[in-house]
Amino acid sequence: MNSNLAMTFGLSVPGNAAAGGTVQTVYQDLRRRIIGLELLPDTTLSRAELTDTYEVSQTPIREALQLLKQENLVRIYPQSKTVVTRIDIPQIHEAHFLRVALETEVCRRLASERDDQTVTRARSIVKMQEAIAEDRSQMALFQELDELFHRTLFAALDRTGLYQLLRERSGHLERIRRLHLPEMGKVLDVLGAHNAIIDAIDARDEDRAVAAIRDHLSRTITKIGELQKEFPDYFA
C-alpha cells in the first residue's frame, strides 16, 4: 500500500519501508505489481532486469523474491528462473476464513467501543473512493484505499500486527479481488458495504456491524467459478 496514504491517516508503515529499506521497497513494489496483475501469472522475473529496474544489487532482489516466495506469489527455480505463481484457490479459501474470523471480531469490538475519530477517518476514505469510483484508470488507487479502509479498522484497536499477518496470507485472495473489481457493480458494492459497516459501528449495533462485514467479505468469493472460467490461464 502507498505509504503516503497510510501516514496521511496516522498509520505506521510495516517493516522498514517507511525508512526506505531497500529490500522492503523492492518487495512492496513487486507485490503491488503482482497483486495488481501488472505482472501476470506465469510471468518470468529476471533478476538481471530487476536489478536494472530498481537500480540495486542482486542481494536485495534475492531477499525480496524470498519474501514473495513465502507468500507463494512467486516460485523460485534455483540457478534458473523465478516465475509468478498462478492463483491458488485453496489458499483463497484459507485466507478468506482467516479474514472473516478477524474482521468480524474487529467490527464487533469497534461497534461496542465506538470511537468518533475512527468513524471520521473511515468515512473520509470512503469519500475518496467515491470520488474516483467511475474512473477505470484509478482502480489501483481504489484498491489501495480499500486496503487502507480495512487497515484503519484494525489500527483503531491497536491490532495492525494482525492486519499485517492477514495481508501476508491474502495475496491470492487480493488477486481475484483485483480481477473482480473493474466491474462497476463490484465498485458500487464495495462503497455500499463500507458505508454499511461504518453506519453500524457509528450506531453501536454489533450484530449489524458483524453482518455487514460478513456480507462484504463474501461477495468476491462467490465469483471464483465465474472468474476461473473467464481467466482460465490465471488459475492453478
Topology:
Layout: H1 3-8, H2 22-35, E1 44-45, H3 47-54, H4 58-70, E2 74-77, E3 81-84, H5 89-112, H6 116-132, H7 139-156, H8 160-168, H9 171-180, H10 184-202, H11 206-218, H12 224-230
Antiparallel strand pairs: 1-3, 2-3
Helix pairs in contact: 2-4, 5-7, 5-10, 5-11, 6-7, 6-10, 10-11
Summarize the structure in words.
Helices cover 67% and strands 4% of the residues. The chain is mostly helical and 236 residues long. It folds into 2 domains: 82 residues, Orthogonal Bundle (Arc Repressor Mutant, subunit A); 146 residues, Up-down Bundle (Four Helix Bundle (Hemerythrin (Met), subunit A)), CATH 1.20.120.530. A 3-stranded antiparallel beta sheet has the order 1-3-2. Helix 5 runs parallel beside helix 10. This is GntR family transcriptional regulator. Keywords: DNA-binding, Transcription, Transcription regulation. It comes from Paracoccus marinaquae.
Sum up the structure in keywords.
single chain, 236 residues, mainly alpha, Arc Repressor Mutant, subunit A, Four Helix Bundle (Hemerythrin (Met), subunit A), 2 domains, three-stranded antiparallel beta sheet, 67% helix
Radius of gyration from the alpha-carbon trace, in angstroms: 18 Å
Task: Please write the CATH class name of the largest domain.
Answer: Mainly Alpha
Instruction: Give me the CATH fold name of the largest domain.
Output: Four Helix Bundle (Hemerythrin (Met), subunit A)
Order of helices and strands: HHEHHEEHHHHHHHH
InterPro entries: GntR_C, Tscrpt_reg_HTH_GntR
Domain HTH gntR-type: 20-87
Protein name: GntR family transcriptional regulator
Keywords: DNA-binding, Transcription, Transcription regulation
